[in-house]
Amino acid sequence: MNALASTTNSLNYIQITTAVLSVLGIFFVDFNTTHIIIAIISFYLYSIIGISLMLHRYYTHKSFEFKFDWLRKIFTLIAILASRGSPLGWVYIHRYHHSKSDTQDDPHSPSVTGFKIFKFFDHMAEKKVNKFLVKDLVNKEQLFISQYYVGIILAFVFLLALIDLSLVYFVYILPVFLTHISQVCFNYFAHKSGYRNVKTKDKSTNNILLWPFILGDAWHNNHHANAAKLNTKIKWWEWDPIASFVKVIEK
Predict the structure, then answer these.
(1) How far apart are CA 123 and CA 119, in angstroms?
(2) Cα–Cα distance, 234 to 240 (Å, whole number)
(3) Domain spans in the chain, listed from the N-terminal domain onward
(4) Which one-letter DSSP state was computed for residue 52?
(5) pTM, whole model, 2 decimals?
(6) Element (H or E) spanning 183, and its range?
(7) What is the pLDDT of residues 146-177, one digit of tens each?
(8) d(Cα 126, Cα 198) in Å, to the nearest integer?
């Protein structure tokens, strides 16, 4: 399955590359106020719009529909630039995670894999692919994205370089690496520590310390109790800003 291969390859190469360049860049770039703000905004675009909103709630769980298709396409581009894999590949792994949560077959259960900064899903590509999991996403658009996934990212990076080389670091390299770190922590701590509102078959937890980085997705036990539900809130104080934002853009 090419989509799954693109996901594992992107995690294997892009994340290591951005990690190395993030460290090296410290000695060559200017960390002024403007650049820091740009990096923070870019991080939240990738983490919240790209992953939490698009890859997770829209593409994986079909929790809402867009009012405007042009906006869906723009947000899909942000999801691609988050560099966590093509939508087809990401959705496959996440749906597989839900079906095998915290078992030996779970792609990223901390009980199985432990905590690793660079923890990839190569083993998933070796398993027999269940195409039924993503049959709703097998269309011309998603197949095109899967085929040219890395090319789209490289084109964006090249465009940034033409504008200003520093933008390559603060709009792409550093935010993508920070997004990777936040997702690694999410996959680990949201199944390892925190509290539970609902008794589920897995070990999913709600972890308030993750909230500043992934917002409503931090209420992960609530989500696993009802994956299709848009709003992850159960207790009155468990605010889910993503669900509030969706009310503005959904049909």
Answers:
(1) 11
(2) 10
(3) 2-194
(4) I
(5) 0.92
(6) helix 174-189
(7) 989 999 999 999 999 999 999 999 999 999 99
(8) 34
